[in-house]
Automatic annotation (TrEMBL), chain A:
It comes from Streptomyces avidinii. Keywords: Cell membrane, Membrane, Transmembrane, Transmembrane helix. It is a multi-pass membrane protein. The chain crosses the membrane at residues 43-60, 72-89, 109-127, 233-251. Its main location: membrane. NCBIfam families: ECF_T_CbiQ (TIGR02454). It is found in: Cell membrane. This is Cobalt/nickel transport system permease protein.
Amino acid sequence: MGAGHAHKLYRHGHSPVHGLPPHCKLAATLAFVVVVVSTPREAVWAFGLYAALLAAVAAVARIPAGFLLRRLLIEVPFVAFAVLMPFVAEGERVQVLGMSLSVSGLWGAWNVLAKGTLGVAASVLLASTTELRALLLGLQRLKLPPLLVQIASFMIRYGDVISDEMRRMSIARRSRGFEASGIRHWGVLAKTAGALFIRSYERGERVYLAMVSRGYAGSMPVIDEVAATRAQWAYASVLPVTALAVCLMGWTL
Amino acid sequence: MDPVTSTPSLEVAGLAYAYPDGHQALFGVDLTVGQGERVALLGPNGAGKTTLVLHLNGILTGGVGSVSVAGLPVEKRNLAEIRRRVGIVFQDPDDQLFMPTVREDVAFGPAAAGMRGAELEERVRTALDQVGMADFADRPPHHLSFGQRRRVAVATVLAMRPEILVLDEPSSNLDPASRRELADILRSLDVTVLMVTHDLPYALELCPRSVVLSEGAIAADGRTRELLCDDELMRAHRLELPFGFDPRTPLLTRPAH
């Protein structure tokens, strides 16, 4: 069985950060990431300050550092190529530990690594203080196209159903003596994937029938109104506004 | 709710329907279900039961004949009201429960009709109470047992205060305890029920009246016990009682209606 609604990214808690309306948090995270990305890479100290800001948010949200760092590992494959940049980039070179490295490549790698890490850390904080369901409500509130929000919420609802179905099909295959072990078996796996697609497609039609039967006419009804007070907006904006101040200092100093 | 109590909940007259591929599923079905009745719709696979059900709330239209629900004809301009009046509980609760939590799923129908706030909350709570699932409101449907999901599926429809509850194979895949719990719930509801099933003992337990649909037409309509005792009729329409079950034996535990 999958994790379903209580997703493993989410860390249950009652901190002030948990309590903020989801759309405030989403907007604050997005603004923070935009500010970080637009900071000049030479202002190394600014990135230190950003990291300190995120650490402060994590402390308020009572997210332990270990939890946060473990979640940050997801970034590794994405920044792997940043490590290559000092070796392959053109231009002025410096000698480090006997290796010839490009200066612009080093800056490029630093830029990707620092901004990427901060962005992922901000998203991990958002995900660990906001339930998946609440995030969707927040997106809806921020006027993301309703169709996209509907698709995302169906994905959450049916992800487990479909992975269960996949598991049952795999058990059925293995019960008949099939073990996928090489390229010759890919055909069978491809057919399974096709069957799964058709089953899911048919389920989609049945779900649609059930929706229409209960009065669905193209848009999801609003069941939970998420509203934010001015104070909550102000509280959520502390992070991006402070970051903006740091960013401006980075440009002027 | 309805001022004219004598109007039947459901009136189907001369309903015939052929699918676009030419396969004809219904050949003139006539069926009247009075208010508060519990009727079982029996029939073998491929008899047209699902086709008939999909006509009741106007998902399938365009054939011959008419359907009306509490006096309101099933027509395009009435569809919203018809779909509120006819609550269909589909066979697979995973198809029926498409929202992330039980509460939101039960709220879907009334909210689609424009209900909001405290009134909506009240409606959801009442519906979940009726099926004994109030404690599960904030759970995702996937984390419930099959029987619980089926009960929530019934609640999603009850929340719309339907005139008639249509259940497609309500007892399928249920263990005996869940089956009994669902029967208790259905008995406790004050609503017209049309139950599509092959589960003949279940039909006998819950529905005083049964209708046999076979090859797209109504083959028999009468008291459930009498129909089940008519061996020839049962055999002619591929309806079989489970081994060891005899509808002639009086039910010791419960009355038949």
